[in-house]
Write a structure and sequence with these properties.
The complex is a heterodimer of chains A (205) and B (143). Chain A is an all-alpha fold and 205 residues long. Chain A contains six helices and no strands. In chain A, helix 2 runs antiparallel to helix 5 and helix 3 runs antiparallel to helix 4. The N terminus of chain A is likely disordered. Chain B is mainly α and 143 residues long. Chain B has two domains: 46 residues, no CATH class; 67 residues, no CATH class. Chain B has four helices and two strands. In chain B, strands 1-2 form a two-stranded parallel ribbon. Classes of the chains: A mainly alpha (205), B mainly alpha (143).
Chain lengths: 205, 143
């Protein structure tokens, strides 16, 4: 009798029990968090290379980049403005779907993709006209390593955003269910932050 | 400082925060290298201080839930009923006993051992309905 009294206090549940969730963080966000954490460590290793080439190296020139080379700061500055603006359009896209504005979501995603593509194209043009390549010294390797690694992440971000854009045009997202946009949005902002750090440390400082 | 990867909004604010962090360092370094180092140390110190104040490893806040009175102020009421669980008379008695005190009501709906699964389902439904009625009767309760 007491056993049934206990059972009567609980909801009837069929199938395997719900998986235990010990973390207060949503599993999808936690996954993105761990992924970005590993990416931050990867960038950290490249920044360590840059630090040793520029600071620790006893033969390093006091001028950066070593003469006769120069970085295209203005072009990179334009690229920075493009990528920074794309974070605003990405944010606009998320805010739109939270307000059930599907057109805003689609427009925001398309604009973000266009800006990201413009960033990559500009970077390719910059590589073609920068005046040095990876065989011109350790500084060049550090430069191409950092910017190239970042460019690869922009490409991955564009792929994610393209998938999200296709789904948005198919009406897959709603104010309640838009994880497929939120997670690429977090990743895109991470890509923007990494570029700001790269631009500041490699080009400006 | 919130976790910047908690959601997209936090990540966007992190982008803006990164600009606010790097801009003074870059500008100061253009004026003088040592000024840039000084500003870097100062700004980094501020960021670390704010992060430590809202560190994720701090104890999580107490889970929100109905306020509970101290043990000695709480009246514990045990209700054991089956078919009579949804009766008005039982509800009146429970409400009268809980009036004016902080109550902790435990409702048990026993089902006979040899009864069918339908009886258990019906008892579960009666239990759920009774709890809803009792919660609606009392503004402060735990069941």
């Amino acid at each position: 009798m007491s056993a049934h009294a206990e059972a009567a206090l609980h909801d009837h549940h069929h199938g395997p029990p719900t998986a235990n969730q010990s973390s207060r963080i949503d599993s999808k966000v936690l996954g993105m968090f761990l992924f970005i954490g590993s990416e931050a460590m990867l960038f950290g290793s490249f920044f360590a290379v840059y630090f040793f080439v520029r600071v620790v190296n006893s033969h390093a020139s006091s001028v950066w980049p070593p003469p006769p080379y120069e970085f295209p700061k203005f072009v990179a500055g334009i690229n920075t403005a493009i990528l920074f603006t794309s974070s605003f359009t990405m944010h606009w896209a998320l805010q739109s779907i939270k307000r059930n504005n599907r057109r805003g979501l689609q427009a925001g995603l398309v604009l973000t993709i266009l800006m990201g593509t413009a960033f990559l194209v500009t970077q390719f043009i910059e590589y073609a006209h920068v005046g040095f390549n990876t065989s011109d010294g350790a500084f060049a390797s550090a430069f191409f390593g950092l910017t190239g690694l970042h460019g690869a992440h922009v490409l991955v971000g564009l792929t994610l955003l393209t998938m999200a854009a296709v789904r948005s045009f198919r009406g897959h997202f709603s104010p309640e269910h838009h994880h497929g946009v939120e997670l690429p949005g977090i990743y895109w902002h991470f890509v923007d932050v990494m570029w700001l750090v790269v631009y500041a440390t490699v080009y400006l400082l | 400082m919130r976790n910047p990867l908690e959601n997209e909004e936090a990540a966007f604010r992190f982008v803006l925060g990164t600009i606010a962090y790097l801009a003074p360092i870059v500008v100061a370094s253009w004026i003088s290298t040592w000024l840039g180092v000084l500003v870097f140390v100062a700004v980094t110190g501020i960021v670390v201080y704010r992060f430590s104040r809202s560190a994720p490893w701090r104890s999580p806040p107490a889970a929100a839930g109905p306020a509970r009175a101290a043990v000695e102020d709480t009246r514990r009421i045990l209700v054991v009923a089956n078919e009579t669980l949804l009766g008005d008379r039982l509800r009146e008695v429970v409400v009268r006993l809980a009036d004016g005190v902080a109550e902790d009501v435990l409702v048990v709906c026993p089902v006979r051992g040899h009864s069918t699964g339908r009886d258990a389902v019906a008892a579960s439904e009666r239990l759920r309905s009774a709890l809803e009625e009792l919660r609606g009767s009392s503004s402060r309760n735990s069941m």
